Amino acid sequence: MDDKVILKTHVYFILIFIGLFCFSAGSKADKKFVLVIDAGHGGKDPGARGARINEKQINLAVALKLGALISSNHEDVRVVYTRKTDRFVDLDERANIANQNKADLFISIHTNAVKKGSSVRGTETYTLGLARTDENLEVAMRENSAILLEDNYLQKYEGFDPNSSESYIIFEFMQNKHMEQSISLASEIQKAFRSAGRINRGVYQAGFLVLRKTSMPSVLIELGFISNQTEENFLRTTDGQNKLAQSIYKAFTKYKSDYDRRQGALKSPHTVSSASREIEKKEVKREGPVQTVTQTKITENSRKQSQNTGKVVYKVQILTSDKKLPAASKRFKGHKNVDYYTENGIYKYTYGESTSFNTIKKVRRELLKDFKDAFIIAFKDGEKVKY
Questions:
Q1: Nearest C-alpha neighbor of 224 from the set 37, 44, 47
Q2: How much is the pTM?
Q3: What CATH number does the domain containing 150 carry?
Q4: Could you read off the pLDDT of 206-261 as tens digits, one per residue?
Q5: What's the CA gap between 147 and 163, in Å, rounded?
Q6: Which CATH number does the domain housing residue 301 bear?
């Protein structure tokens, strides 16, 4: 083979290599952010029933409006729906849709209700975890009861009984590596609702089956209480649904901007779409004063770590007291640098803190020897994330 042929062969393979490299790099750069929007309930499952509308209709309307806003203003986002019509989808299948599409984020949309207390109103956003209040457990039980309409649900969900509180113990161990991102988005959603005049009932954790198998950051939003006549009237109107969708959209835009920064995207972190600017211009009349579920005061040390950092700070709560304990209290069992915060007049003592959930899990395991009821709590921007 002469030198010219050898040279041509080398050039040929170099061009192929460059072409493949450019294609690979271009494909990676062009990869779209995948958002799965899940409209809760549907078909034979109406969800919570109102006097004039059922939950499944509200959920779907807001989900479609949210998806349309995002598709119109975020060209780099691919929106996938678990349902776009009035049809029933198994809870496991909703998670499968997200996983199969390799979603970067999962948002499940629901509407709340209570059996007693028609005056209850406001929005809540949940992440996956163990519900530590009866009220949060009741919400999870109601949403999970959809599996009773599925075929072979006992086999599919490994004997899980949505109406048995014992079944929910499994969620103690299911707070995953996406917890920080999930809490961050949930907090942004509640801030956006509050800015739009909605009553902010806070960010919580509870055991939702629809979030159990999602392998990405995920949240479940409760838009309001259909059991409250005033809220139902708001939730069933096009104007009300638009306002709810716009609030979630604003929170998503902030989350996506932060996500792009983390990924090193070559764009301004403060870029806001034209639709978002229009939303900002509109003044929304408040329905009532912003309410908080509990009053929480954290110590100066905690405040330095958790306030205005934008990060979630995890701590391990070890005990509570109706009065302030001295630093050398025997109840601390020899542990030093114990911190505390107050909630509704009760002193709640914590040990350790970290922005890493895996790190604080190790701290909790060590503390269980002395404090068998120790559990993890989280703060974001100085506010406790409600469980």
A1: 47
A2: 0.66
A3: 3.40.630.40
A4: 888 888 878 899 999 999 999 999 999 999 999 999 999 999 999 999 999 988 88
A5: 11
A6: 3.30.70.1070
